[in-house]
Specification:
The chain has helices at 52-59, 73-82, 108-114, 172-185, 213-217, 222-247, 290-293, 320-327, 344-347, 410-430; strands at residues 2-3, 27-33, 62-68, 118-124, 142-146, 158-161, 164-167, 192-197, 254-260, 294-300, 309-310, 315-316, 358-362, 377-381, 384-387, 391-394, 438-440, 456-458, 462-467, 473-477, 485-487, 495-497, 500-502. By secondary structure, it is α/β, with parallel strands linked by helices. A hairpin with a 5-residue loop joins β19 and β20 (473-477).
């Protein structure tokens, strides 16, 4: 058992405006949905679904039709809140400890809180299950939701409220919307930052049958029908929230940002023609093709940014923090390396000052501790996208990535591959690839509940949990996921160990 003592001091320095300038302090509502595909909106010409409220929000926004996130949940959330590639934050994937953010990262919530914002998160955290990698320790004043990557009860769920169990009544998407607006209403004397992180339409696909019966009648498979029901319920909730902002005269002074955390999942490793509609994009969640990492992203600020405008540049999750810092005239705290760029000029109607940047991704299952640059690597510059050092696509002409142009444009492929390797070396030299140990013994969090999926099993132990469309089936996972329990205790060689770092002497 290792014994260590940690001391961290965080200074947040706010840029002082020039004399005579007005400090902008709009409210910020950041809406992140879970596993919504690029084609899962009616504005994407999906004939089987109706999302009038999200279509309306898009029409009132600057609409990024090419906005990049990570292939899976936790990495996107890390980048969204820090402006940094997720590897730099300690987040590599979604389970087994690879989802835990380094507690010394500076989050958007911490930055905004230091400048007078009231901060709240409602819904899915998925950046750690142990203190201090928790919402209330990472800048959020109010937290109602769950720590893990998913929850298995969508009706009358017991959530967490600032470290304590919080019983709720009703459907979880409705509950999160209500909790978020209650927070917004009580932040009247301060600008608010509300991070509404819905878990829909992630599995388990639990929803009242009234929401998907019509889709079954259309002849859709049950999985797709349920997903569309979850999305249409989500659309209704977002519409109600936007209407509530308007009725309380908050619309004009509120920035609203909407996006999904990754692409859709239609089943594990399906052929392309068995996946649900995704507007012609290739592949789905877990992959670095466009179907796994491209989302619609809406930015609305009435009177400040144009509406009904489609951006002619691509953006990414790492751009949210630097964009808001420039809009709010806040200096970069600590001189922290931020990987994203500001999209402020694009939001204001001009793309002249947006630099020609290269955007990178690296994600492949089973390679989280690996120093190898591939598989799972991309570089995008302009319309060109390189995949794994061997494939090249012109996304303007071929957004579905059907025509590999590597043999025709070898110099373009080589330059993007070289840029990717240089970026990957900066990741390796500036971040720890291995997952961190669990920190125990903090005086502010005396009880730590060790989760099965963060342990290392021996012998016949299996990670067992609820699987299936609605979480009704019992199945096993090779390395465990959140919510699993342990089975297979048959002899003295069966067991599990957890890697921990003890923060203070004492009896445990």
């Amino acid at each position: 058992m290792r014994h260590s003592i940690w001391l961290s001091v965080v200074l947040l320095v706010c840029q002082q405006p020039m004399a005579g300038t007005q400090i902008l302090r709009p409210n910020i509502l950041l809406i992140l949905v879970d596993d919504l595909g690029y084609g899962d909106l009616s504005l994407a010409a999906n004939p089987a679904i109706s999302t009038p409220n999200l279509d309306r929000l898009a029409a009132e926004s600057v609409h990024f039709t090419e906005f990049y996130v990570s292939p899976v949940c936790a990495p996107t959330r890390a980048s969204l809140l820090t402006g940094r590639y997720h590897q730099r934050t300690g987040v590599q994937s979604v389970t087994n400890g690879y989802e835990t953010i380094n507690p010394d990262e500076t989050t958007l919530a911490e930055i905004l809180k230091s400048t007078g914002y009231r901060t709240g998160i409602f819904g899915k955290w998925h950046l750690g299950e142990y203190y201090p990698s928790l919402p209330n320790a990472q800048g959020f004043d109010e937290y109602i939701g769950f720590r893990t990557g998913h929850t298995d009860k969508y009706f009358n769920a017991t959530l967490e409220k600032n470290g304590r169990a919080h019983a709720t009544y009703g459907y979880i998407t409705d509950v999160l919307t209500q909790e978020a607006f209650q927070f917004i209403k009580t932040a009247e004397k301060q600008p608010f930052f509300c991070y509404l992180a819905y878990n829909a339409p992630h599995t388990p696909l639990q929803i009242d049958s009234s929401w998907f019966a019509g889709h079954l009648k259309q002849g859709l498979p049950e999985r797709t029908a349920r997903v569309y029901g979850l999305i249409e319920n989500l659309d209704q909730n977002i519409g109600s929230l936007l209407d509530s902002l308007a009725s309380h005269n908050l619309t004009d002074n509120t920035i609203v940002i909407f996006l999904s955390d990754n692409g859709p999942i239609s089943g594990w490793q399906l052929p392309q023609d068995h996946m649900r509609y995704n507007a012609g994009l290739r592949d789905q969640k877990f992959t670095i093709y466009e179907g796994g990492i491209r989302t619609h992203c809406f930015w609305s600020w009435p009177g400040r940014w144009p509406s009904s405008r489609r951006s002619d540049v691509f953006g990414a999750h790492i751009d949210v923090v630097p964009t808001l810092l420039e809009v709010l005239q806040i200096a970069n705290p600590l001189g922290h390396q931020i990987d994203g760029i500001s999209l402020k000029s694009t939001l204001e109607g001009s793309s002249e000052n947006v630099p020609m940047r290269t955007f990178f991704q690296k994600y492949a299952l089973g390679t989280f501790d690996s120093h190898w640059p591939y598989p799972g690597g991309i570089a995008r510059k302009g319309d060109w996208k390189m995949v794994n050092g061997t494939e090249l696509y012109d996304l303007e002409a071929d957004p579905g990535e059907q025509r590999d142009l590597a043999a025709i444009y070898p110099d373009t492929l080589r330059k993007l591959d070289e840029a990717y390797h240089s970026w990957w070396q900066s990741i390796l030299s500036g971040s720890e690839r291995a997952k961190a140990n669990i920190l125990v013994g903090h005086l502010t969090e005396e009880i730590i509940e060790l989760q099965p999926h963060h342990g290392i099993k021996q012998g016949n132990i299996t990670f067992t949990g609820k699987r299936g469309l609605t979480g009704e089936k019992i199945g096993t996972h090779p390395s465990g996921v959140d919510g699993d329990w342990l089975a297979g205790w048959e002899g003295p060689d069966d067991g599990i160990t957890w890697p921990i770092d003890v923060q203070a002497n004492g009896k445990y």
